[in-house]
Specification:
It is a single chain. By secondary structure, the chain is an all-alpha fold. The protein has three domains: 1-196, MFS general substrate transporter like domains (Growth Hormone, Chain: A); 202-258; 262-435 and 449-507, MFS general substrate transporter like domains (Growth Hormone, Chain: A). It has 22 helices and no strands. The protein has helices at residues 2-5, 9-29, 38-44, 49-52, 54-66, 70-77, 79-99, 103-117, 120-131, 137-165, 170-173, 175-189, 203-222, 232-254, 268-298, 303-310, 312-327, 333-351, 360-387, 394-432, 447-450, 456-489. Helix 5 packs parallel to helix 8 and helix 18 (333-351) runs antiparallel to helix 19 (360-387). The longest helix has 39 residues, at 394-432. It is globular, with a radius of gyration of 24 Å.
Length: 514
């Protein structure tokens, strides 16, 4: 503690930012880092493919349900105390995940990870907003955004490397040293917030929202395997989610002390920010859900090599955030969001021309452009969404902001994966309509020998080629869909109140360099 007391205010601020950022990074990293390890875990834990999926699902669902409680817990028991217990619990749960000897142990440990990790991202955001002065909020959100936006991109690469060269257990053990460092930093540097001991917990409101979110996450997770609304289970989950959310909204605006403060939704910038961050979640993880299988199944890359090719997207995001932070001192932040949307849409338009012959260089620089566009969006959006919000509502607002982004990611992945499967079938049916004995193109050159429609081998070879083309077209159609979603929604940023160019005070050069 003597060391901390001797630190200058700028050094203390930098170390505090590093500590809370580290907590956010390890939590977000765990949403994607375990994906590539699932096949290895499946063999070790003697689980079926459906059973091992609960290693991911249990984490996502518990985190989504617990996240809205962040505002209440921080207000009732103190933000620092909550952060300490969250980091400690998440770190211990990570060790339990790595040490799991059965599927039941792994799922239980992942649920604990979700419970303790749910608050790490929103609390880290609110701590940074309170620690940095208003004129440096853009810089604070740039630092915070590096973890929030880059961690999901780097997760598969890190997870693939650890799984391939060490063991799937190290996907979880890697959290231990960083969790301990973050915990020490939080204990030493974070100040306790004001505690409201009169605040009561709205159990009914929590149950309504928790059931709604849980049903939604189950629907998104199981929809593809159950053919969506052809399944009675999916219909039931959709009805339960919608009904309980409606009841929650009515309860929130009529109860004296609701679970979530309705004053949050009276702030126009915050409400528009929620809509936009929802679609940022869609674009970020929906694209990441498409590119790895495109590279692996169609182009023959290994898991690790595919991760390396996608890694420069993270560098593009970091560059975009740094540039956006500089530009916010000179121009309207809303125009930077629109610029980011243009860059993101342009990259998706280029991706609609991807074929199996696309070069690594094209994939890389397109990813950098897309990452830069998302960086342009994220920093000004996160800054002006909270700029006019009551500081007392920041922790609660950060929880809702993170929850909406996560829900957007889940819905986006479900949409593009479902569309991909449907379009493959549709494209295959359309292409096979042209394969008839009357199509003279099949009679040219060596084609009659390679694709002999009179033999089983020739028909199999022809069907394989048609399927490959159908899959390639389906990916292009998904890229088109995401592109149009981006173009339509980004101009909504102009509805936000104009804060004008924000004065960005540069930090001391020896403390925090860009």
């Amino acid at each position: 503690m003597d060391f901390v007391a001797r630190l200058s205010p700028q050094a203390r601020q930098a170390l505090l930012a590093a500590a809370v950022m580290l907590a956010a990074i390890i939590q977000i990293l765990d949403t994607t880092i375990a994906n590539v390890a699932l096949p290895h875990m499946q063999g070790t834990l003697s689980a079926t493919q459906d059973q091992i999926a609960w290693v991911l699902t249990s984490y996502i669902i518990t985190a989504a349900i617990v996240m809205p409680m962040t505002g209440y817990i921080a207000g009732r028991f103190g933000r620092k105390r909550m952060l300490v217990w969250s980091v400690a619990g998440f770190t211990i749960a990570s060790g339990l995940c790595g040490a799991a000897q059965s599927l039941e142990e792994a799922v239980l440990a992942r649920m604990l990870q979700g419970i303790f990790g749910a608050s790490l991202v929103p609390v880290s955001q609110s701590v940074l907003l309170d620690t940095f002065p208003r004129e440096q909020h853009a810089k604070a959100m740039s630092l915070w955004g590096i973890g929030v936006m880059v961690a999901p991109i780097m997760g598969p690469t890190i997870g693939g490397w650890l799984t391939e060269y060490y063991s799937w257990r190290w996907v979880f053990y890697i959290n231990l040293p960083f969790g301990i460092l973050s915990l020490l930093g939080v204990i030493a540097l974070v100040d306790e917030s004001k505690i409201d001991r009169e605040r009561r917990f709205d159990v009914f409101g929590f149950l309504l929202l928790g059931i709604s979110i849980g049903a939604l996450q189950l629907m998104l997770d199981r929809g593809k395997s159950l053919y969506w609304f052809e399944s009675k289970e999916i219909i039931a989950e959709a009805v339960i989610s919608a009904l309980f959310f409606y009841l929650f909204v009515v309860h929130m605006f009529t109860h004296k002390r609701p679970f979530i403060e309705p004053g949050l939704f009276r702030d126009r910038n915050f409400c528009v920010g929620l809509v936009l961050i929802f679609f940022v979640g869609v674009v970020l993880l929906a694209t990441l859900a498409l590119l790895p299988p495109f590279l692996q199944s169609l182009m023959g890359y290994s898991v690790f090599d595919a991760g390396l090719i996608l890694a420069p997207r993270g560098a593009g995001t970091m560059a975009g955030m740094i540039i956006a932070t500089r530009l916010m001192g000179r121009m309207d932040p809303r125009s930077i969001i629109v610029l980011g949307g243009v860059c993101t849409s342009l990259s998706l338009w280029i991706m609609t021309g991807f074929t199996v012959d696309v070069s690594e260089a094209t994939i890389t620089w397109t990813g950098v452009l897309q990452g830069m566009g998302l960086g342009f969006i994220f920093v000004p959006l996160s800054t002006i969404a909270f700029l006019t919000l009551d500081p007392l509502l920041r922790t609660e607002g950060s929880a809702i902001y993170s929850l909406v982004r996560n829900i957007g990611s889940g819905i986006g992945i479900s949409i593009v994966v479902t569309e991909l499967a449907d379009n493959i079938q549709r494209n295959h049916a359309i292409l096979t309509e042209h394969i008839t004995p009357f199509n003279h193109l099949l009679e040219q050159g060596v084609l009659p020998q390679v694709w002999n429609t009179q033999s089983t081998q020739g028909l199999a070879a022809l069907d394989g080629m048609v399927l490959k083309q159908a899959v390639e077209m389906a990916y292009i159609q998904d890229f088109h869909l995401i592109m149009w979603m981006t173009l339509i929604i980004v101009p909504l940023a102009l509805v936000m109140k104009n804060p004008g160019p924000l004065e960005i005070k540069p930090p001391p050069q020896d403390v925090m360099a860009d």
